[in-house]
């Protein structure tokens, strides 16, 4: 890819093979990847819901991997844990208390990190103590 070296660590070409085995993605992960523009499901089995054909946007995936790599270098561990909690959750919004319980951190630490993530544009504050990923 020719993006000014941006994707050098994530060299994806037409020869790159990607295999997803049955059960390797949760429903929440499929939803997140679809909303992020990485995954487009072309067909699935009606009875089981198993995806039988999908398109993976590897350039968008590389964008996300690059962003995640940068974020892990500039964000606190509490912030990355919070974003991980949102990725694992099937809910679109989470409260400060739910997040604190999920990542096993004090509510005060989680609250400070949520404010920082909102300021960084990673989360939206829906109402007092309730957040959603942008």
Which labels suit this protein?
alpha+beta; disordered N terminus; three-stranded antiparallel sheet; 5 helices; 134 residues
Description:
- This protein has 134 residues and is of the alpha+beta class.
- It is built from five helices and five strands, in the order αββααβααββ.
- It has helices spanning 27-35, 58-74, 77-88, 96-103, 107-119, and strands at 39-44, 51-56, 93-95, 123-127, 130-133.
- A hairpin with a 6-residue loop joins strand 1 (39-44) and strand 2.
- It is globular, with a radius of gyration of 17 Å.
- The two termini are 27 Å apart.
- Residues 1-8 have low confidence and may be disordered.
Give a quick rundown of the structure:
The protein is an alpha+beta fold and 134 residues long.
DSSP helix fraction? 40-55%
How would a crystallographer describe the biggest sheet?
3 strands, antiparallel
The SSE order reads HEEHHEHHEE
- Mean pLDDT comes to 80
Biggest sheet: strands side by side, in what order?
Answer: 3-5-4
The number of helical runs is 5
How many beta strands in the DSSP annotation? 5
Unreliable residue runs = 1-8
Secondary-structure blueprint:
Elements: H1 27-35, E1 39-44, E2 51-56, H2 58-74, H3 77-88, E3 93-95, H4 96-103, H5 107-119, E4 123-127, E5 130-133
Antiparallel strand pairs: 1-2, 3-5, 4-5
Helix pairs in contact: 3-4, 4-5
């Amino acid at each position: 890819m020719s993006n000014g070296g941006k994707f050098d660590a994530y060299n994806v070409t037409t020869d790159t093979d990607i295999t997803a085995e049955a059960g390797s993605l949760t429903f929440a992960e499929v939803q997140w990847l679809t909303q992020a523009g990485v995954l487009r499901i072309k067909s699935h089995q009606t009875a089981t819901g198993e995806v039988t054909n999908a398109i993976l946007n590897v350039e968008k995936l590389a964008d996300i991997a690059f962003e995640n790599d940068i974020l892990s270098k500039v964000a606190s561990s509490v912030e990355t844990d919070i974003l991980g909690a949102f990725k694992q959750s099937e809910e679109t919004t989470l409260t400060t208390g739910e997040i604190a319980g999920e990542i096993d951190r004090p509510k005060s630490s989680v609250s400070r990190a949520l404010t920082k993530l909102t300021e960084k544009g990673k989360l939206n504050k829906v109402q007092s103590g309730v957040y959603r990923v942008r």
